[in-house]
Design brief:
By secondary structure, the protein is an alpha+beta fold. It has 2 domains: 3-85, RimP-like superfamily, N-terminal (GMP Synthetase, Chain A, domain 3), CATH 3.30.300.70; 95-152, SH3 type barrels, CATH 2.30.30.100. It has 3 helices and 8 strands; from the N terminus they run αββαβαβββββ. It has helices at 3-24, 55-71, 95-100, and strands at residues 28-37, 40-48, 79-85, 105-112, 115-127, 130-135, 138-143, 147-152. α1 (3-24) packs across α2. The longest helix has 22 residues, at 3-24.
């Protein structure tokens, strides 16, 4: 089995263990990154929530996930576990991502006739799968199916 396949399988196992813990604590699991250097692993777990993520939240989740990983003997080598917020500059893709960012100024990259196009403005709301963006030209309605990604303007 190749290293990439082993890492992918291990990442899937970690996700199955970590996601219920993250959800139970009131957060959303955004991404898991797993890398290996020699015999050690680096496991990064990124979370988000409607109320934000504090350093204390990350520490608490790290303890819970670390304990579950150790009890389940999931990683058979030394590892570093990092739990953190997904960050302000993370690309937004899902309805849930955008829902958390209502009221924020952003740039949304779109597919328009096969070419990327960008729309800038304030996300004022979501109606079903339609984003409502208020910009210089007034309010635009953008279907999530047209969105490549959104980025908060910092």
């Amino acid at each position: 089995m190749t290293v990439n396949v082993m890492l992918r399988d291990l990442k899937t196992e970690i996700e199955q263990l970590a996601e219920p813990i993250v959800i139970q604590e009131g957060f959303d699991l955004i991404e898991i990154k797993l890398s290996r250097f020699r015999r050690n692993y680096r496991l990064q777990i990124f979370v988000d929530s409607d109320h934000g993520v504090t350093l204390g939240d990350c520490a608490g989740l790290s303890q819970l996930i670390g304990a579950a990983l150790d009890v389940g003997d999931v990683i058979d080598a030394r590892y570093i576990l990092e739990v953190s917020s997904s960050g302000l500059d993370r690309p937004l893709h899902s309805r849930r991502d955008f829902q958390r960012k209502i009221g924020k100024d952003m740039i949304i990259d779109l597919v328009d006739a096969g070419r990327p196009k960008s729309v800038a403005g304030k996300l004022t709301g979501i109606d079903g799968d339609i984003l409502l963006i208020s910009g210089d030209t007034g309010e635009e309605k953008i279907s999530l199916t047209e969105v490549l990604q959104g980025k908060i303007i910092i």
